[in-house]
Write a structure and sequence with these properties.
homodimer, DNA-binding, 7 helices
Chain lengths: ~150, ~150
Amino acid sequence: MKISKKCQYALKAILELARRNPGKPIKTHDIANAQRISPRFTEIILNELKHGGFVESRRGNEGGYMLARDPKALTVREVIEYIQGAISVAPEAIKDNGDTAFFGNEAFKELWQEVNSAVTEVCGNKTFADMVEFEQAKREKCVPNYCI
Amino acid sequence: MKISKKCQYALKAILELARRNPGKPIKTHDIANAQRISPRFTEIILNELKHGGFVESRRGNEGGYMLARDPKALTVREVIEYIQGAISVAPEAIKDNGDTAFFGNEAFKELWQEVNSAVTEVCGNKTFADMVEFEQAKREKCVPNYCI
DNA sequence: TTATTTCCTACTGTATTAGTAGTATATTAT
DNA sequence: ATAATATACTACTAATACAGTAGGAAATAA
């Protein structure tokens, strides 16, 4: 399972929303700028995320997007699965209707399922609140705003 | 990281070699047949595996391929990394020279590294001997050769 | 009404993947 | 030696997915 650029952008966009104080909609333009994503592509992605219930939108002047979910309860896994489908390194090999008559069929199924579980667990345990916190901690460490 | 068909075929080919008693070279044709791979594509893959030192070849009549490594000490990870490069779900995002100036840079790096480690561990612990054994156990269970 | 911004559909260039084709080269059996 | 067989190697191609663009329609606030 490769994480596509689009999917990475989606995660970035949500992180950007999660990081800002809520209450006011944020423009795609701002999100695109902050996260270095093509503005037009950002539109598409945010619109898609809206259909998935991850963000809310407001049109017109002073419009934009707001996070629709609590960052503490929103995992990376959910977003990935919505944008690029179920996490799997070898989707065809796991299907039950696949070719089953060769030696190794069961062993490979088992292998890929183990891999998928491992990935799913990591992504399912990582919330956007975690990520915001992690990033802020890192930045504080590197650029301390106090002197000895 | 998606596991490409080619890579899956490579794993299958090696499993097929690991499963058979060694000593005699096995023809690509037989491997292709047993594992349901396009014969011509099998050639390419086996040749590539030879350059990686995974198999040995013998040309001419009664020629074919033989496993060059001990299945007990050969892991799935090695083959995957040889055929499609280092295991990573988001190679660009992990590089150090990448764009670092946006919020989330560090958090995403950490995330993808966790995912990669998880996958690498699973694949690095699975040997071809394991897989042959697993498959044989499964088959014995389903088609027992004894009666009560 | 005007400026702004989301919403929606369709299109396009590029890269990767999966597989094919043709031929050269090596080995063995006879 | 020669015919038959099988690997070795290079190049090509069709299909698919990915990443991003283009153009306008609809909604909202001032």
